Amino acid sequence: MNTDTIAHRIHWDKKYAQGNTHAAYNPDPDLIKLIHHFPSSGLALDVACGTGRNSFFIADYGLDVVCLDFSTEGLNFLKQHRSSEPIAKKLFPVQADLSNTPLPAATFDAVFVIRYLDRTAFNSYLQALKPSGLLFFKAFNINHLNSKPDFNPDYLLNKQELINAFKDNEIITTNDLNNNEDEESMILVRKSQAKNG
Ligand SMILES: C[S@@+](CC[C@H](N)C(=O)[O-])C[C@H]1O[C@@H](n2cnc3c(N)ncnc32)[C@H](O)[C@@H]1O
After folding, report:
1. Which residue from 14, 67, 73, 133 has the fewest beta carbons nearer than 10 Å?
2. Mutate to test the pocket of ligand 1, among 69, 77, 156 (most ligand atoms within 8 A of CB)
3. d(Cα 105, Cα 147) in Å, to the nearest integer?
4. Where do runs of H (alpha helix) occur along 49-130?
5. CA 90 to chain centre
6. Which distant-in-sequence residues (6+ apart) come within 8 Å of 124 by Cβ?
7. Number of structural domains in the chain
8. d(CA 50, CA 189)
């Protein structure tokens, strides 16, 4: 891990240690709206899961979930939350640095990436999916500067960036249009076998 990554991990560990579990631990609202598109069994990957607000929702829906994050504190929260309930057996927490951890190929029925932006990894999410698997991706876009002018623009999506990145796959739904006024862009795509092996 390089020093930037270590500093970044400490930042998230501190945040989670202070009890910041993200938006009162509610799952992402678009995930709630779109979950019916997903199979209700199989294996999912929640990339950069944090404390697991979305992982639990996906597992409650029926999928087994590999919950990957580099924050020990985030994963500790996830492990303790509802640990006495049967749902705990559907979650598989993995502590790893995504910047140097290759995802296994053709393994998951569904991949979820919510509020974590690494453009260089877009292709690896598709490769991690089984044929015809589903990817849900959502992150802040440049409209976020309206409410948070100091936000680092490197971590903001441009308009139509998701549509362009995933255009070779079946786009089931997206809000990633030029006139989109939302502060977050999202896309749900089905992996095309022809382009992504
Ligand atoms: C904004 S939070 C989103 C958490 C979760 N997806 C959610 O929506 O609640 C970003 C997460 O990315 C994780 N993260 C950032 N860089 C990472 C890296 N290189 N490897 C693994 N996790 C990372 C952080 O620990 C943090 O939990």
Report:
1. 14
2. 69
3. 38
4. 53-61, 72-80, 122-128
5. 17
6. 102, 103
7. 1
8. 23
CA 197 to chain centre: 22
Residue 14: inside a domain? no
Residue 53, ligand 1, Cβ within 6 A:
yes
* Position 75 in a domain: yes
In a domain, 2, yes or no: no
Ligand 1 touching residue 71 (CB < 6 A): yes
Tens of pLDDT, residues 52-94: 999 999 999 999 999 999 999 999 999 999 999 999 999 999 9
Nearest CA to ligand 1 atom 26: 50
Helices 72-80 and 3-17, packing angle to 10 deg: 30
Mutating to test ligand 1, I would choose from 70, 73, 99, 148 the residue with most ligand atoms within 8 A of its C-beta, which is: 70
